[in-house]
Every structure is written in C-alpha cells, then in structure tokens.
Amino acid sequence: MFSRLHTYVMQQPCAQEDHYPLKVAEQQTDQGSITFGYLRTNSYQMDGCGGRTDAHDLLSLFWACVLRANGAASTRLVDEAGFVPIPGEIYARWLIFDQVGDLSDPNPPKAKILAHTAFAFHALDDVVGWGDIMYPQARWTNGAKELVDALNSSGSFTDFDDMAGIRECPDWYYAKSLANGITVAILPPARAAAFRVALAAYDPVCVSGRSRVSIVGSGLKNAVAHRTISSGLRLLRSIEPESSLPWKGAGSAPLDKAIALIPLESHCVFVGMQSIVAIAADCGIRSFETERTKFLVRRSAENAVFSVDYAFEWTERIDGGRFEDLVYALLEREKGVAWVRQAGPTRERDGGRDFIARWLISSGHGLDGSASNGIPEPAILKSIVVQVKAHQPSVGKAKVVDIRDTIERHDAEGYFLVAFPQPANSLVEHLVALARRGTWTDWWDRAQIESRLRLNLDLLARFSDLVVQKEREI
Fold first, then answer.
1. Domain holding 401: CATH number?
2. Residue 401: which residues within 8 A CB-CB, separation 6 or more?
C-alpha cells in the first residue's frame, strides 16, 4: 500500500514546495548530504507555554507520525533551546531521519521527504487548521488542572504541572512531564479522528520478545520496550477509560477500533480515542537490531543443539540469478542491515545485479562493530552498494571494475563484495588498498556465506537447487 501512496505523493503539484512551518533542508558534510526537518512557529501567530513549546512539541510529533505511517522516514526528534534558556522550553525542533524509506524511486532523500511533508501538511489540516492559527485566536491559558490531576494520580509520574494548559486554535489540552520526557494532549473528537485518518497507511506487524516488541511497518523497523508500552497505556487510561478503545497490541492499525502505537526513533506515540501520549525512549533501528541479534543468537544455539554435524554441498554450476537471490535473503537477516533493495536495472552491464543495503556499521573498517584498542566505536547507518560475483576457481580483479564509479553511481558510502567461492589475492589487495585511501570496503567468501547459512537453515528449502546440507562422515 505505501508504495502506491508514495507514487501518488510524488505526483502532487506541491510535492517539492515548502509548507510552513514544516521545513525540510539538506546539508553537505564530509560523509555526504544529510536531509533533516525543522519546525518553529512565530510569536505573531501564537504565544504562551514557554514560548510555544506545546505547538513545537505536538506539531513535530504529528509530522513525524505521518512520515512514519507512510513509510517515508522514522524520525529522531531533537529539541532546540531558546536564546535565554527556560527549563523545558522547546524553541524549535529538529527532525533527524535515521531511517529513510526506500519507496522505490530514484529521487534523492530530500525530494522524497519534501513530498511526504507536503502530504503531511495537507493531511494534518483537519487536525490543526493551519490557516486559522493566528494570535490572538491561538491563545494559551495556563492550567488544565483536571488533565494534570488525572495524570499525576496515575501513579507513574507526578510532575505534569511543569508545563500544562489549554490552547485555542489549534484546539488541545496539553501537559508535559519535563523530567521524564512525556507529552500528553487531548484533541476534540473530530480532530482526533482526522489524525487517525492521516495515519491510515500504517499497517504494522510485530513480534514480542522478552524486553521489547519488534515492529515492521511500511518498510521501516522499530522496537519498543515493554516498560515503555506499560507506562504509555497507564497514562492514557488515566484520562481515557478502557471502554473508549481497547489495547489489542502494537500490531493495531490506526483505523482499527483500538489504541494505535506509532514508533519513532526517539519516541513512542500512543493514539487513543481523543488522547495522544508520547514517551521519549529509544524505539528506533538500533533497538530493533538489538532484538534481532538476540533472536539470531537464540536460533544459532538451537541449531547447534538440534542439528547434526553437517557440511554444505553446492551445485557444480552456480546459477548467477539464484545465487544473488540467496545473498539477498542472507543480507535481509544480517546483523545491522536495516533494509536491502535492488538498485538500478535488473541486470547491470557486468551481467549481475547491484543491491543497496542500509547498514548499521562501526566507524572503523569492519561491518561487525569491532573495537579499536578495546574501545567500542560508534555505529552509524550507511548506504552500501553490494555486488555478487560467482566464478571458479576464484573471483579475480578483472571481474570487479570501477568500484568507486559504482559507489558514486548509486550515491552510496561504501562497497561490499560477495565473492564465491573466494576473491583472488589481487582483488583482496585492491579492496584493502581502497579502504586505506578512504573508500569503505568489505567482503564475504564461501566460508562466511556458509557460516550464515548455519544460522538460517530454513533458507536451504528455498535454495535446494544451489546448496544442500550433507552430514559429515565420521
């Protein structure tokens, strides 16, 4: 569904126009271009609540939720303090897009985010009424005592009177727990219903682990701690009775008659009948990868216990297309890979397909999050171009040409080679030399492919025409 929506969004006449106060910009860095969002209203439109903190808080949350629902981006929200810092004031808010959806078109990230921001602006018009926001209509009244009392009596936190009140135009009751990073709002029924409609594309699937619920929705991946969900539901229930909307789990869609959960990189947002609760928590791709690593470790241990000692036997003639499909399947399950997609034409000029993987890698030279001098290195998401080569007895340097041109063609940040059965020494030396000159490179050979197959034995049924497991002779 989200790919069809994306096509529609990109075709709209205003797709590449700015929509105040939702600003999308791009900055060039040594690591390439970074697309980000920025939200700040003006005092002539509204005032109060520590300099319009409520507006910056809620409007950015609404915007980020629509981007997440549509598969455009999973966002980290970063507050900007004012010139004269006031405790809890949000002078403006930055939106950092830690995950940008693939969305199946060649446009750069800024064009995609800009188009989906335009869509979000119009989808949220029935929620906030952009054209009506003007001082003094958009007045702020301190207080909201009933809301604050209900939240403080929930037993979770007791500081919701730090910043609370009632905003007129847009219409909401607002309360914030500064110390705990919790935002609560109550909207009029029609505006709350319109917000759910704006999120209609979100259709998640989830699985529950010991500590987190892992969620995949609209092509993006998040994981939310059980304790975060418990806190959010308890707060929402303090202002909305259970009879209003039930909790049916993180897999509920916004148009279901149930509480909806929208995960962002930095927040978990709960959408009730009229209420919205947002809790600042790590709910992004790194939490998802932590859960996936635990799953892979469990499965590896199970394989070690329940499988006999075996080797792999490959077909004498490797079908290139099928082998690429196998590599694609392994990459989808590889630690740190947020997503992998085919890039460019079905067959490249060298006879194969290129893939682009969004990979969480260390700032060092390996994909395994290795440490330097015993000190863990920070990990960041990078776009890596992946090429797959199968050639007996080894893949030579002549089979892999123009690596830097390939990286530039796909606007990637590194190069990863899968060479079966192995890369020739000349090719290894070439990849190492590129890395020394600042081009990120890494590779798999047959041994590393087989080590990953041992962790993913279910794939053997799909690729039995390529490889089968064979019990070792003792």
1. 3.40.1350.10
2. 350
Which ranges in 130-176 belong to alpha helices (H)? 145-152
Residue 101: other Cβ atoms inside 10 A:
25
Return phi, psi of residue 15, to 5°.
-60, -30
Q: Are residues 63 and 212 in the same domain?
A: yes
Residue carrying the six token digits 């809790």: 279
**Tokens of residue 352, six digits:** 């194969």
Q: Where are the alpha helices (DSSP H) in 93-188?
A: 109-123, 125-128, 145-152
Phi, psi (deg, nearest 5) at residue 408: -65, -40
Rounded CA-CA distance 155/147 in Å is 14
Separation in Å, CA 247 to CA 227, 232, 252, 274, 407? 15, 11, 8, 14, 46
Q: Report pLDDT for 376.
A: 45
> Is it the case that residue 368 has pLDDT exceeding 60?
no
Q: At what angle do helices 145-152 and 226-239 cross, to 10 degrees?
A: 140
Residue 73 — φ and ψ, nearest 5°? -165, 150
Shared domain for 395 and 434, answered yes or no, is yes
221, amino acid identity: K
DSSP E strands, 73-219: 73-80, 92-100, 140-142, 163-167, 172-177, 182-186, 205-208, 212-217
Q: Same domain for 277 and 315?
A: no
Amino acid identity at 134: M
d(CA 37, CA 63): 10
Q: Are residues 337 and 200 in the same domain?
A: no
One domain, residues 176 and 82: yes
CB-CB contact of 299 with 452 (8 Å):
no
Q: pTM for this structure?
A: 0.74
Does 260 lie in the same domain as 374?
no
Please provide residue 26's backbone torsions phi and psi, each rounded to the nearest 5 degrees: -135, 140
Q: Which domain holds residue 329?
A: 307-471
In a domain, 298, yes or no: no
**Contacts with 221 (C-beta within 8 Å, 6 or more apart), sequence order:** 74, 99, 214, 215, 285, 288, 338, 339
Environment class of 451 (CB within 10 Å of its CB; exposed 0-12, middle 13-18, buried 19+)? exposed
Closest C-alpha among 126, 80, 68, 124 to residue 264:
68
Most confident stretch, 220-224, 285-289, 300-304: 220-224
Whose tokens are 């279910």? That residue is: 458
Confidence of residue 244 (pLDDT cuts 50, 70, 90): confident
Same domain as 378, residue 277:
no
Q: What is the pLDDT of residue 309?
A: 58
